[in-house]
Amino acid sequence: MSTSTTLVWFRQDLRLADNPALDAALTSKHIIPVYILPPEGSDESRDGFLRGGASRWWLHHSLTTLDRDLRARGSRLTTHRGKPDEVLARLAAETGAAAVHWNRRLEPAGIATDRAVKQSLREQGLTAQSFAGNYLHEPWNVLNKQGSPYKVFTPYWKALLAEGIDLPVLPEPEKLPGVDEAIEGETINSLGLLPQLDWAEGFADWWTPGEAGAWDRFESFVDDISHYHETRNRLDLDGTSRLSPHLHFGEISPRQIVARVRSEYPDALDKKGPEHFLREVGWREFGANLLYHFPQTETDNLDARFDRLPWRNDPDHIAAWQHGQTGIPVVDAAMRALWATGWMHNRARMIVASFLTKNCLVDWRLGADWFMDTLVDADLPSNTAGWQWVAGTGADAAPYFRIFNPVLQGEKFDPDGTFIRRWVPELADLPDKALFAPWEAKPENLHQAGVTLGKTYPRPIIDLKTSREVALGAFQQIKEYQR
Ligand code: FAD
After folding, report:
1. pLDDT for 258-299, tens place per residue?
2. CB 33 within 8 A of CB 75
3. Mind listing the domains of the chain with CATH numbers?
4. β-pairing, 30-37 with 5-10?
5. Catalytic residue among 280, 411, 426, 439
6. What separation in Å is there between the alpha carbon of 387 and the centre of ligand 1?
7. Does 138 qualify as catalytic in the annotation?
8. Angle between helical axes of 211-222 and 254-264 (0-180°, round to 10)
């Protein structure tokens, strides 16, 4: 069997540098880069990778950029639609390829797809080889002394550091063999990833999907990384890297991130800013670790005792939350920013998730679904872990009595109200002291700022104090039930 042609199947690794599947194919005479859009509603399309409209927008642009980068090196991306095992087998037959390479995905649906594809290709006599490309370490390699998975972050992070996070980074190929024009497929446009109604119109002002865009963003962030521990919680500052969508689509790898931080700060783990940043990259690994070892948590509470929580799921509350019309300024600012940019600051994610699950008693799964649809970085492991953490139903969870007070959070993390004024412009003229809780403002302040509650801006959909007490009662009951 000739190994002169290898298909490289791209999924969540849309980069040329540090790409183990591509690197291992470089000994082949011919390399055919392949992207396959699975059929709507199939098992392969059900996972977080392709679930949401915002992710699909990103994917369209990232594939376009990958194709451009491949062409600059003499190759091109072939794009297809269909069941991956069938498409890969057909392409192998058409091109005489003997091997298929890809980088592993670790979400439940991604694992199922990988297994099925591997088995099917091997049954047809093809070499099917998968590689580790998306995380620093794969979850089965980071276990405690008893051989069990970690459920708490700090010991997990220590174990990850003990495994070593300074890992070799593979070079980017300078040239690639050409791809026969006769290979038929779809065009990236015909995959239909862009929304019909251009609600994502504004995203392009915020993002440059693709490998070069990831590096531009990362390089400008590295310049400020020494302040990360001080600025990362501020809603009004550009204090975080915003690398999450680039990482999700594999346009940059965590190995590259660690190596670049280390090149600037060899003592990164002893320096507050860089250490804190690398630790956050560790949270991404931790989320993948949790979902890999506890795949049921995609839909089930990690802590099953919380199955008894009396969620209310009031449709009016859910709609107001989704549309940034709750009457709580910091929540509305965050939800509107999400809609406009496809991204939300981590602190804001915690505030809006706490408001939805605790004040409104809406099931975390409904909030997580909305995030999966609207975030450009929608990532099943991180999203699931984030929601379960805030709701108090997950690993290493926020204690049930921790209910974020969105007024105090706004005052603390958006001290001048810049973030609120930007996204809730109808409140822009309120004085600072009235901005975070306009329902408590003096009538003359509202009047002077042109704000009429219930008319130009909603009254709060829920009373923060009483809803907090109700939630505490509901969570307390569960706690007592456990005894
Ligand atoms: P930085 O602060 O610059 O951190 C660097 C990288 O570390 C991030 O790009 C990200 O990959 C990783 N990271 C940082 N914080 C976390 C975290 N808490 N958990 C896991 N990884 C982290 N992140 C997603 O990538 N996709 C999601 O769908 C997602 N959903 C979330 C839902 C909720 C309710 C919460 C509380 C958090 C969620 N997060 C999610 C985690 C976090 O909010 C984002 O990763 C972060 O805000 C991305 O911004 P950044 O790239 O500027 O992060």
Report:
1. 999 999 999 999 999 999 999 999 999 999 999 999 999 999
2. yes
3. 5-132 (3.40.50.620), 135-169+211-293 (1.25.40.80), 304-480 (1.10.579.10)
4. parallel
5. 280
6. 11
7. no
8. 30
